[in-house]
Design brief:
disordered N terminus; mainly alpha; Ribonucleotide Reductase Protein R1, domain 1; two-stranded parallel ribbon; elongated; about 425 residues; disordered C terminus; Fumarase C, Chain A, domain 2; 3 domains; Fumarase C, Chain B, domain 1
Length: about 425
């Protein structure tokens, strides 16, 4: 499954080879710290560095017998090192290795996710600038409201992705914590200086306090962040699905030559990428719940979290990495139909101008309630008959008594609604001097 869902670099983070390599680095770094303190002879460290290695197949073979992954790993390493293996894992417990290595793996994974999210931001920015003047109807409750531009919509999404990037960076900081504090986290058999040294070398911070494990509120925050990022993609994808509906068709996923949309209906062009992203987001939100369940461990530790994390950590990071890449590619090739947008905007015969007329009447002395009633009665006739709102309103004696024809006609200028759109887009991308 790993190979199908992501690029090899993300998959490689969760392979046994990388995990055991980090374990070995931690063990050797701990030895280095102890040599510095004079607790282990330096010549032993030199020999260990030269000989230290492991064999994944051998570790798996040993684990079948001992039923303990860290003991199996240490046994395999000892087979390469020999007598000096007695200087490995001194005063340490399994979770010192497991949790610290897990932090390194999560940091590696989040770095790739940040990079992919930055790519999504770049694409959305490009589409926003490309379509900053592409007018379309804005919708609330799925019903026509007032005009926007497609570029404005893309800028809105880009702004959210930028917040997602900040969240991912913060999550990487939150998870970049290690512990080498012994059996229940009290440093009874190992000095805090060892933890400080190992963590510094691994670009981690020492946990200010821990039990036998790093506390799982950190992990829950990270997986909640992954769920939020996925939910952003779900939100964007749901919008694309709506815009691709036959009755709307203002935007559409790219449909390649030879692609087929249905086994039964040759005419079908379905939003399959968007639907796929919506489905994956459900998984990622579910993983965040599992991470929260992992917070409540018994006393100073149990391992009820371990089996769950072995599933959700690779799955969540791999799936989100894939989803970000899929969304980026989809948006790069997204087909946008400005003519259809204009046609849909005009399909309600000017109803979009209703608020402008309401405000103009209020400015002439009408109460808001009266102005609303005057405009609404013509708007309801327009809905039923398809007649232009402007024509119906101009026949209304209350409107004619309040507004001149020149004042009235000026209310039906679409530019009024778009006058601040460029400013919003520029603000999102902090444009200065006309440059993005």
């Amino acid at each position: 499954m790993i190979e199908r869902y992501t690029r090899p670099e993300m998959a490689a983070i969760w392979r046994d080879e990388n995990r055991f390599r980090i374990w070995l680095d931690i063990e050797i770094l701990a030895m280095e710290a102890m040599v510095r303190q004079g607790w282990i002879p330096s010549d032993a460290l030199a020999r260990v560095r030269k000989k230290a290695s492991f064999d994944v197949a051998r570790i798996n073979e040993i684990e079948k017998k001992v039923k303990h992954d860290v003991i199996a790993f240490l046994t395999s390493v000892a087979e390469h090192i020999g007598d000096d293996s007695r200087f490995l894992h001194v005063g340490m417990t399994s979770s010192d290795v497991l949790d610290t290595a897990f932090a390194v793996q999560m940091r590696q994974a989040l770095t790739l996710l940040i990079r992919e999210a930055e790519g999504v931001f770049a694409v959305l920015k490009a589409r926003a600038l490309e379509h900053r003047s592409t007018v379309m109807i804005g919708r609330t409750h799925g019903i026509h409201a007032e005009p926007v531009t497609f570029g404005w919509k893309m800028a809105l999404w880009a702004d959210e992705v930028r917040r997602d990037i900040v969240r991912l960076v913060r999550a990487r900081d939150v998870i970049s914590v290690g512990k080498i504090s012994g059996a229940v986290g009290t440093f009874a058999n190992i000095d805090p200086s060892v933890e400080e040294y190992v963590c510094r070398k691994l670009r981690l911070s020492p946990a200010p306090a821990s039990t036998q494990v790093i506390q799982r509120d950190r992990h829950a925050e990270v997986f909640a962040t992954l769920g939020i990022v996925a939910s952003s993609l779900d939100k964007f994808s749901t919008e694309i699905r709506h815009l691709q509906r036959t009755e709307v068709l203002e935007a559409e996923e790219f449909f390649s030559a030879g692609q087929k949309g249905s086994s039964a209906m040759p005419h079908k062009r379905n939003p399959v990428l968007s639907e796929n992203l919506s489905g994956l987001s459900r998984l990622l939100r579910g993983y965040s719940v599992t991470a929260m369940e992992n917070m409540a461990l018994w006393h100073e530790r149990d391992i009820s979290h371990s089996s769950a994390e072995r599933v959700i950590a690779p799955d969540a990071t791999i799936l989100l990495h894939f989803a970000l890449g899929r969304f980026r590619g989809m948006m790069e090739k997204l087909l946008v139909y400005p003519d259809r947008m204009r046609k849909n905007l005009e399909s309600t015969h000017g109803l979009l101008y209703s608020q402008r007329v309401l405000l103009a009447l209020a400015a002439k002395g009408f109460s808001r309630e009266t102005a609303y009633e005057v405009v609404q009665r013509s708007a309801m006739k327009s809905w039923k008959t398809g007649r232009p709102l402007a024509a119906l309103l101009w026949k209304d004696k209350d409107v004619r008594a309040a507004l001149s024809k020149k004042e009235f006609d000026a209310l039906f200028d679409i530019g009024y609604y778009l006058k601040n759109i460029d400013g919003v887009i520029d603000r999102v991308f902090a444009r200065k001097g006309g440059k993005a």
